[in-house]
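Batch manifest line 745
LIGAND: 6-O-phosphono-beta-D-fructofuranose
JOB: complex structure
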Amino acid sequence: MRLSLRFLIPLLLALAAFAYVAVPLADSLMQRWFVRDLDMRSNLIADTVQEPLSNLILTGSTPRIVTLFNRLLRDERLYAVGLCLQRRGEPVATPNFPRDIDCSQLGRFTPPGEHVLQASTGPLHIAVVDVDSESAPEARLVLVHDMSFVARRSEETRRYLFYFFVALSGAIALITVVIAQLSWRGWVQGLRALLRGEGILRPSGTATAPELRPIARDLKDLIRDLERQYRPLDGSQRIWDQDALRATLRSEFHSNDVIVVSNREPYIHVRSPGGVRIQRPASGLVTALEPVMRACSGTWIAHGSGSADRDTVDRHDRVAVPPDRPIYQVRRIWMTKEEEEGYYAGFANEGLWPLCHIAHVRPTFRSSDFEHYRTVNTRFADAVVAEARTKDPIVLVQDYHFALLPRLIRDRLPDATIITFWHIPWPNPEAFAICPWRNELLDGLLGSSIIGFHTQFHCNNFLDTVDRLVEARVDREAFTVSCRGQATAIHRYPISIEWPPEPLAAQGTIAEARRAVRTRLGLPSDHRVGIGIDRLDYTKGIIERFNAVARLLELEPQWAGRFSFVQIAAPTRGAIGDYRDYAVRVQSRADEINARYPGARHPPIILLAEHHDPVAVYEYHRAADFCFVSSLHDGMNLVAKEFVAARDDEQGVLILSQFAGASRELPEALVVNPYDADQCAAALHLALTMSAEEQRERMRFMRGVVREFNVYRWAGRMLLDAAVMRQRSRMRPFESARGVTAGPA
Ligand code: F6P
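JOB STATUS: finished
ARTIFACT:
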């Protein structure tokens, strides 16, 4: 119902009540009260004049009787007085005594309620009182009061009543509106929210009716306090999914001002002969963060690296994604070719990448690269400040491309919550000290509220490095670093994937996947297939993997021709010589091994050195008998978790490098040392011969872990920790609470 109606209806009802009930009731009540009053008054006057009047009757002096009556008329209410000595004839009366009353008619004024005469001058009250006179036993005194004052009083009363009713009905109307708003909106929206699976309270971001805001605020505070009291601080006992993550953001931060910064963008627009095509990058980081952004919305700032990226943004360099169902914004940052070479290929991937991975490729540091790295980090900081909608946004900085960024943001948005996640390993202090700009990098990172790593080992290495190289207070119990008056927490957050993974929805049955992949590769339906899926990166141990296959065929030659290892290798970082060399070496090692089995109907190694989108990748996972992840050093490796997530048939074996972070969480895999070809070959053989029952048992365990420790938990735990830090930083320190400003000298 419209607001105006809600207001008008009670108002009109109240006015009708005034006109049809209150006014007649007040009139009749007043009439009765005044008549009774005048009756009493008349009796009083009659009593007062009783004696002089009976004396005058005795003397028979009519003029003196009239004189007495005229004196009585000084009372302004008394209109006329008359005396009937007999039951008929004219009364002895004052001049204005009503002509239509004669002594024979006095009987009609004696019954109760018949005291009013409507004369031409207005209403008159007539009181007839017997006079106690021996000489005239029938004498009766007639006292006539003017009742026009009653009408005047009534008029006045009506006016006051009218004001009173208007005020009353206005108040009722207002109260009705408020109550109607409360109950109607509250219930309807509560019902809608319930139907949507939300709580009774609205999600933040939707407008609350102004009149309800204080109540809503109090309720929310109450609920939040209760939640805080009863939730485990690290979120370990929660079930994490999109909704839980969204609710955490809402309850802990009251906002959706979430900004993600990464080098790689989640959707790349590429020019192709058929028009603009969207490509999903082969990136663990993107795999993990994309579902988080779909849950939180917000803005993702990344390098616009696609050939058609500039054609698809708006005038603020933004594009809404996912393309089919936009939920969040990608803000693209542009770079010149030189900047990209210096910042990305040079400092990040020729310097920091080999520095942090123990893969026996020497890091290369050039000062010109570092200058580009600094320039690009500053450009991203500008974008963060421009995209922030509040003074305290939540900024999720991703990876080694942005070591300087947290400090640059902190300087300009001191209240921001900056969570930096380092997706690759952190080396020991000696190794890190090789970098000529080690102090700048550490200072940049320590602008973060939290720095996250996949494993405790990498957290320890980071703390050791800070302890060795920076003037800071390192607390090894709380795992914090205090520097420049600000604390940074160092925590372990093992990254993961969404559960259930989106590409799974597009899959057919396992049998269909097996058939499709084998047909595509020209393999018979009973051919055994192992799978490896990586970027063509020297840290991934692809050559070691091929070596293991070669060793298997040496040790167990019966597999030749009956088994193939399919390696999907997405080309990556082609501007870097070490990567180009590696791609060549991988190809020649595959050729070399295949050449050893010229008679085999199917090659031992099938190398597909091209990009595959997530749906195609999942199909390979589902078609394989095992997946081999042989990283020489890896922060986490999400391919291992994707394989587990893809196998809803609880079959398939995971062979996993002990140097990948994932091996800490998935010990039910066959954990191997990729440098040990014999051990890896044994694992391959075991995988090809493992019973369905053992496969199921191992897979069930692993699926339980990946399901529960999914990417929503990864993001949610970081946010919860950041929320606790935010709360603590708002509390007054003990010293200042005591009024102590300086410590002991
Ligand atoms: O996991 C480390 C990482 O550098 C991620 O940051 C990135 O998503 C992935 O490897 C792919 O690398 P790039 O973005 O250089 O292709």
